[in-house]
Design a protein that fits this description.
Layout lengths: L1 E9 L4 H11 L4 E5 L5 H5 L2 H22 L11 H9 L5 H11 L3 E4 L2 E5 L2 E4 L2 E10 L3 E3 L13 H4 L8 E5 L3 H12 L3 E5 L11 H13 L3 E3 L3 E8 L2 E8 L2 E7 L1 E4 L3 E3 L13 E2 L2 E2 L13 E3 L11 H17 L12 E3 L4 E6 L9 E7 L4 H4 L7 E7 L5 E8 L2 H14 L3 H4 L13 H4 L3
Parallel strand pairs: 1-2, 1-6, 2-3, 6-18, 8-9, 8-14, 9-10
Antiparallel strand pairs: 4-5, 5-6, 7-15, 11-12, 12-13, 16-17, 19-20, 20-23, 21-22, 22-23
Helix pairs in contact: 1-9, 3-4, 3-7
Length: 448
Amino acid sequence: MEAEYDVIVIGTGVAGPVCANKLARYDMKVAIVDSREYGGTCALRGCVPKKVLVGVAELVERTEKFHAVGAVDCAASINWKKLIELKETFVDFQPAQKEAEYGQKGIDTYHGQARFLSPDTITIGDKQLKAKYIFIATGGIPKPLEFKGHEHLVTSEDFLELETLPKRILFAGGGYISFEFAHVAARAGAEVTILQRGKHILKHFDSDMTDLLTKASEEAGIKIHTEHVVIAVDKVGNEYVVTAATPAGEETFICDLVVHGSGRIPALEGMDLEKGNVELENGGIAVNEFMQSVSNPKVYAGGDCVKIGAPLTPIASLQGTVAASNILSGNTKTVDYNGVPSAVFTIPTLASVGISLEKADEKYDVYFHDTSDWYTSRRLQENISATKVIVEKETGKIAGAHLLGSEAAEVINIFAMAMRLGITLDEFKKVVYVFPTMASDIQHMIRK
């Protein structure tokens, strides 16, 4: 069976639906396909369900701190089974709802593995679909591991499905997945260890801030070991023995669960990309500035399956929007990556936008403040918090901002807006904020 479309979209995460919905609004005949349930990682297996767990962990942390000073009579604890059940209420309805919404917009839906048959044709099982354009947005998957016993590790997706939380949990890798779930697990009563292969955790974030986050993590009971490379995992009875190579030799750790936190790669396996003349670069689809394949002009791609731009939900959305515009009107639009913020939802939250610098130089001013004694932090019993704002001397424009604190993920958006709009520091100082809020602290963050 063969069907013809203007555009076939492969992937229903973030970039794919953004592209498909925009094209459908312009009366293009669109099909969308996914090898898994509709919704993608962010909605079903990542950002959305994870934040539900984080919210409860934050409540427990805050209650414990107020209990410690006598302001709350009893400490809180997490009922893991009930928490996972709560998480499911944010997830389980989404695949059917999203598929129904596509139908309402006139988008044809398919399920199964999409494979290229030629540069403009794919197969899905016994179905054959041909299109003027194909947009690939298949997302990412956990990076394959090669050490002995790698099959014993569970992924972040598996973690979100745990019916009971093991007592001792080890995270292999020191990236944002490990830290976010480690902070949740620690507040749920688990003994948590993180093994990071390099010298620094969260390598894409400001080192001054990650040093403070390390301190906050250790105060929460999380054990962090840098320069520890996992080389083997052995199952002994109901326990796991994890062996790591360190500068001083091998070291072993005993735990009840080992979680894969060693990064993700583009999810492109099984697509027969060579038949579609779709070239790869650094493991992702090679695209130009218009999000178009460099080898097949009929193909566009966006999201975690490409290597340009950070693997963030907002960037996937931007790329999907730009690809749709270029499919509609020719290659005229590019993605503006300036001022795209990101956050690690630890406790406290670490949020960042723009460049990072440890100290001022001839081009930039650096405004760093330890805010642990500021009202915003003290009222929440938050003993570790800080801000760093980086300003370009010549233009007075904000070049970067890094925040560590309970409201950091919200306030970073204000700095991101200033960067995208090119607002100068003098103009920024004119803004009036609701007081008392962390946003009202901005006036102090941008002063030495």
